[in-house]
Amino acid sequence: MRGGGGASGAQAPGTASRGAGRRTLLADAAIGVLADAGVRGLTHRAVDAAAGLPAGTTSAYLRTRQALLTALVRRLVELDQGELQALGEQVAVPRSAAELAEGIAVLTERRLTGEGRRRSLARYACAVESVRDPELREILVPRENAGRAVVRAFITAQGVADPERRTTTLLACIDGLVFDRLVGGGPVRADEIEGLVAAALRRPDAATG
Predict the structure, then answer these.
(1) How many C-beta atoms surround the C-beta of residue 45 within 10 A?
(2) pTM, whole model, 2 decimals?
(3) Domain of 19?
(4) What is the pLDDT of residues 178-198, one digit of tens each?
């Protein structure tokens, strides 16, 4: 016998997608609040205001502070991964260290200006929070993307030992430069990037030879 209540509990068409869209909107607003007001300023009420939504909206979708932080970090990683993926897909593997340094310079400028700067501020604030939060730390773990693959492919082509480790170290150093300039001001200089790239390609016997 076929009952008439088989669809009970099912979401109406479009409800799930609208809910996902609203969560994305709130996460984007939360990134802006965190960048502008810091961790202490990140409240449900502040996110409501930044998103232009009625008071209580954020709490309805992301009830706890932990849920809000988790949604924010997931969205931040999604945006960063999308940027790096697109950047990697737009360029070929560099033909020289100078070309690699130029590509990295483009990324650092994006991370220090406009919306990229706000995302960087939010990212580092989340990194500090993740020290005491294993769940956030796991979300923030660097992931594979086309941008990272381009850097690794170039380093591998140079024939140096352990290209994976060198890629990780180079990108961590670039990240550190971005953080330093966020705090202290000013751009990342070309010679700084070139020095880090040269270090990533240096062979052990270069220092003694």
Answers:
(1) 13
(2) 0.84
(3) 15-204
(4) 999 999 999 999 999 999 999
